[in-house]
Every structure is written in structure tokens, then in C-alpha cells.
């Protein structure tokens, strides 16, 4: 039975963990709370890393692409037993076939000498999904559950796009604020330089004031000394005048006698 194109969760039959894309660009087993923020399960809170878009190729093989990242599940160029299932931006193809138990599937690659199947070795979270060579064990089999509310995926991706747009807007505002801050810093630098120039000019004016004050002091001292000389000259002139007057009086007295 072929798999219809659509969005699916891929759940391990034995360990019940879901296939998700990890931050290391590998596919790992994961599980999360089934209770939403309001106390019940909600499809609007689905983890998009947990959803895979399965598409059929014209050679009857399939691509498995992560809804969140748009990366394809793939295998190394030379897949080997135990190799990890990775994610890549390049298209990779897989065979997907239903087992003898309805609803259970094997996902495998025929790129090696033998078919290698997706398998989960243990139930620990974030255990890498690896390539195994045995198809008929539940740990290497998967349940593909179609995500019924496909429109909600579009809604979630639209919300993601909105968040990315907001992030872009905020980044633009941040850069604008950085530019404004740089301008303010430049203006601050200019004002500081102007302040330094004014301080230098003030220092020069203070020096000039000191020089003028010293010059005024010297001038006042010269005036004081000149005044003292003038007073001394007046006193000497007065004394000389009085001496002449006294001599004239004595001469007059002698004539009269």
C-alpha cells in the first residue's frame, strides 16, 4: 500500500518515540508532553520539528522532509549498518513499505549492498535513529500518522513567518538605534572637543589676565615711585625758595642799618 502525500508524524512501534530533527542535523527519537498550556492537548501547539512531509516521486520512492526546517531526511553517501539518519538540504529518496501488520511501515534505503532500515535502538530521548539490516523487528518499524489539520500547519508556519518578520523588524530597529547611538557618540565627541577648545581658550584668557594684572601692578609701582620723586622735588624746591627768601630778608636788614 502506497503512502499518500501529506504531513505525518513518524512514531517507533516498539519505543513509541517520534522521529524529529535535532540541532545537530540528525534524526533522533523524541517525546514531549501531550498537555497544552490550557491543560489539554492541542494541535496548534504541535512541534513542527516532529512533522514530516512525505512526498512520492515518479520512481515510486519517497522524500521525507521536515516541516519546520525544510531539510530532507537522508543517509550518508555510503550508508552502512549503524550509520545515523541525517538531515540535508539536498533531496534524498527512501523506500517506504507497509509491513504485514496494517499501519506499520519500514523506511529504508537500497543505496547499499543490502537494504538498510530506519531503527531506534533504545527508548532514551534524543537517541539517534540509525540504519539497521533487520526489518521484521518492532524497533525498526514505524507508524505513520497523518496530521489531519493540515491547515493548522499553514497557520503555524504563518505564525512562524510573522515571528521571523517581527524579528527582522526588531533587528532593523536595533541597527537604527545603533546608528543613532553612533551619531550621538559622534556629537558627544564633537562637544567634548569643543569643550576642550573652550577650556584652552579660557586658560589663555586667564594667562592674559594674569599678564595684564602683573603689568598693571608694575605700572602702579612706577606711578607711585614717580609721585614720590615729584613730592621730593617739590619739597626741595620749596626749601630752596625759603632759603633764597631768608637770604633776601637778611640783605634788606643790612642796608637799612
Fold topology:
Elements lengths: L5 E7 L5 E4 L5 E4 L21 E5 L5 E5 L5 E3 L11 E3 L6 E4 L5 E6 L6 E4 L10 E3 L9 E5 L3 H107 L1
Antiparallel strand pairs: 1-4, 1-12, 2-3, 4-5, 6-7, 8-9, 9-10, 9-12, 10-11
What would your notes on this structure say?
With 257 residues, the chain is α+β, with helices and mostly antiparallel strands. The protein has a domain of 143 residues: Trefoil (Acidic Fibroblast Growth Factor, subunit A). The strands form three sheets. Strands 1, 4, 5, 8, 9, 10, 11 and 12 form an eight-stranded antiparallel beta sheet that branches. Strands 2-3 form a two-stranded antiparallel sheet. The protein has a two-stranded antiparallel ribbon with strand order 6-7. About 3% of the residues have low confidence.
Summary?
By secondary structure, the protein is α+β, with helices and mostly antiparallel strands.
Indicate the proportion of strand residues: 15-25%
Number of helices: 1
Alpha-carbon distance between the two ends: 176 Å
Mean pLDDT level: 89
**Can you tell me the CATH architecture of the domain at 6-148?**
Trefoil
**Relative helix content:** 40-55%
Largest sheet: 8 strands, antiparallel
Amino acid at each position: 500500500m502506497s503512502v499518500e502525500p501529506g504531513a505525518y508524524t513518524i512514531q517507533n512501534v516498539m519505543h513509541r518515540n517520534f522521529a524529529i530533527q535535532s540541532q545537530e542535523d540528525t534524526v533522533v527519537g523524541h517525546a514531549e508532553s501531550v498537555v497544552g498550556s490550557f491543560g489539554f492537548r492541542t494541535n496548534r501547539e504541535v512541534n513542527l520539528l516532529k512533522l514530516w512531509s512525505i512526498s512520492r516521486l515518479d520512481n515510486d520512492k519517497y522524500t521525507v522532509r521536515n516541516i519546520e526546517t525544510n531539510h530532507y531526511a537522508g543517509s550518508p553517501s555510503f550508508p552502512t549498518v549503524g550509520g545515523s539518519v541525517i538531515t540535508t538540504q539536498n533531496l534524498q529518496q527512501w523506500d517506504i513499505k507497509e509491513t504485514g501488520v496494517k499501519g506499520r511501515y519500514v523506511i529504508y534505503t537500497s543505496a547499499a549492498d543490502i537494504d538498510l532500515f530506519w531503527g531506534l535502538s533504545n527508548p532514551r530521548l534524543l537517541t539517534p535513529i540509525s540504519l539497521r539490516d533487520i526489518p521484521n523487528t518492532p524497533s525498526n518499524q514505524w507508524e505513520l500518522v497523518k496530521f489531519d489539520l493540515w491547515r493548522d500547519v499553514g497557520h503555524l508556519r504563518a505564525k512562524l513567518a510573522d515571528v521571523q518578520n517581527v524579528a527582522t523588524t526588531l533587528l532593523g530597529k536595533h541597527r537604527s538605534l545603533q546608528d543613532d547611538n553612533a551619531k550621538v557618540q559622534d556629537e558627544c565627541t564633537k562637544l567634548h572637543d569643543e569643550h576642550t577648545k573652550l577650556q584652552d581658550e579660557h586658560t589663555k584668557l586667564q594667562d592674559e589676565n594674569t599678564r595684564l594684572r602683573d603689568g598693571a601692578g608694575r605700572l602702579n609701582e612706577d606711578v607711585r615711585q614717580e609721585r614720590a620723586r615729584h613730592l621730593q622735588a617739590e619739597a626741595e624746591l620749596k626749601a630752596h625758595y625759603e632759603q633764597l627768601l631768608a637770604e633776601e630778608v637778611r640783605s634788606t636788614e643790612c642796608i637799612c642799618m
